[in-house]
Specification:
The chain has about 425 residues and is mainly alpha-helical. Helices cover about 75% and strands about 0% of the residues.
Amino acid sequence: MNVKDPAFAKNSPQLFYGWLVVAGGFAVTFVGFGCVYSFSAFIDSLQQDFGASRGSVSLVFSLAGFLYFAVGMVSGPLADRFGSRRTALIGMILIGIGLALASAAQSLAQVYAAYGLGVGLGVGCSYVPAMGAVQRWFIKSRGFASGLASSGIGAGTLVVPPLVALFIVHLGWREAYLLLGVLATIVGVAAALLIENDPRDRGLYPDGDSKAALLQPGPATAPSAGLSIAAAVKSKRFLGLYAACLFCAFGVFVPFVHLAPYAIDHGMAKSSAVLLVSVIGVGSTVGRFFLGGLADRLGRRLSLLAMFVGMAASLPIWALSTTFWPLAAFAFVFGVAYGGWVALLPSVVMDYFGGRNVSGIIGVLYTSAGIGTLIGPSAAGFAFDISHSYTLPIFVSAAGNVIAALIMALTSETAGDEATKPGAAAV
């Protein structure tokens, strides 16, 4: 019997390979975003060594964030055409190179180039392809699988920043960047090798089901079905998602950069301040892991809208808090909603537009988050330099999420899934 026969795969006791793709996505996001969100641990050192303002240092993160979202517009279509594994491998190597070069920087401009370009391009080459690949391997369990893969972001946020803070204390910030780059390359490359673009490449069907299960009436969810990128981006649903993510992104990454400095400004030890970023990671992991599966039952569109509301509701807690435990409560609640937002977006895109070009469509969508990330964290830093307060940036961030929720509510209930309209798959 041919072991690549789908019927054999269905009855085989072996683990469905889709879960190894999920594991690869988890590890890739763990490495990539763990490195990105450890940036807050370096802010004080970079300010002191280069005599820079908080806004100027924050721009390092904003540049990296803009690039890792914007590059998805290129890496997504490349992954659809050439395979997600190749692009993810390139991304992991770029992250390692960028961190190693940042360790040797002699000016803040060189940090912009090394960290901003290296890490930004690296995450951009790996994140969208990895998440796009996961969508193709699942239908019934797509929300759960997507949440599980993207929970690597939360786990990375939990583990890497405090680990980096220890490296900085015992080795120095330059050595910390170098060691982080070596670890990122080793773990990231191994993880990327697990990623595979399409279950058909292994003679399998999504969820490990037989072909008959895919012939039941329902949306065009097979990996080969769906809209072209051009048709998708012209649809009202895509424009609504794009606008919602744009408004959300102006503030969603502000806590990752500025929560730790805010806590230090209010008298907390650096170790405790960096730990708050890890608490966001704890909440994010909970949100991705549990809300993804829950959304499969309650509805992914409605659940995504609820994540915007959750982020908006949590941010005022930050503005009113000056001690560790209230800030930790904010970090956890915000992390849950943020994690759910990131976990659900790829699944909603697949629901709306099908799987044929899912990585490319996700990549175009994420340019909205790139624009918001470029502006939001650095603008918050410059606002602090002027006013010595984060109150205005916090409430602007909350307002952006309120607007995002309203846009989502007004645009998500259009008639019929785009991918199921007559002729959609042939567009």
